[in-house]
Amino acid sequence: MGRRCFLFAGFSAKYPRAIEKKRRMRYNKTNLLILLKGARTLMVETFTTRITPYGLDRKVFLYLPDDWQTSGKRYPVVYMFDGHNLFFDATATYGTCWGLKEYLDAHPEAIVAAPECNHEGNRRLEEYCPYDSDWFDGIHGTGKAYMDWLVGEFKPWIDARYPTLSDRAHTAIGGSSMGGLMSLYAATRYNDVFSKGACLSPSVRLCMEPLTADLRAARLRKDTRFYLSWGEREARDQHQLAEYTHNALTVARLLSEKGAAVYPYFQMDGRHCEADWRRQLDRCFRFLFGWE
């Protein structure tokens, strides 16, 4: 059976044609990956930063267009979660990455700044959950503290060092699974900072009640855009698939009612894994940024 996608009636999914103070941050460059492709130099820079609310150092993966130092251009920025899973199979938790470097190599129109997650025990669940939850024997969500750091310290530092388009219209946030949940939360609660959210397979079932309460209370600007996806094979059976679909469409409806443009995408045969999120990159970025 061929791959198919479903677009749900009632949601806006238009493709537009165009799409502070400096704070100190600990910066220890640990690696610079330079990959040659013809005459172009394509870069993913890694460095260590301190996430101050946790008092922990964390590696950051930073994708830079090849001409960022010479073009005189400024670029939109996508802040993403689970940076180790985005660019290289060698650093990905399960051995397969999103292939985001290859995609951006062909569409060098953005900077991506992506801290690695906390790999210790359930700390990733805690950092990437904006609410307390009874799942997994209880999650004490510290996602708000993480986002306060990202918005208040990390983003200003990136903007001060690199040629970014720092305004809201050119700032997006994205991730998958728990990172997708955080992206949904962030683009809603910090809508004065992020105009776009890439929410791939967001783990909304962990906290549907507080999440939907926040969505109902949210005040979104009319140019806000959300890409929201879920996959057929993420569920163990038809009952669970119905739950996932209901949750996704509930979130999409609430966002749409607030005036946001929402692209709800059901990936036939889609699994909860990097290989299948990889197949959504072009669809997602073209919708969010209006790339041709």
Automatic annotation (TrEMBL):
InterPro entries in alphabetical order: AB_hydrolase_fold (IPR029058), Esterase-like (IPR000801), Mycobacterial_A85_antigen (IPR050583)
Pfam families on file: Esterase
Gene3D superfamilies recorded: alpha/beta hydrolase
Name of the protein in question: Esterase
Organism: Subdoligranulum variabile DSM 15176
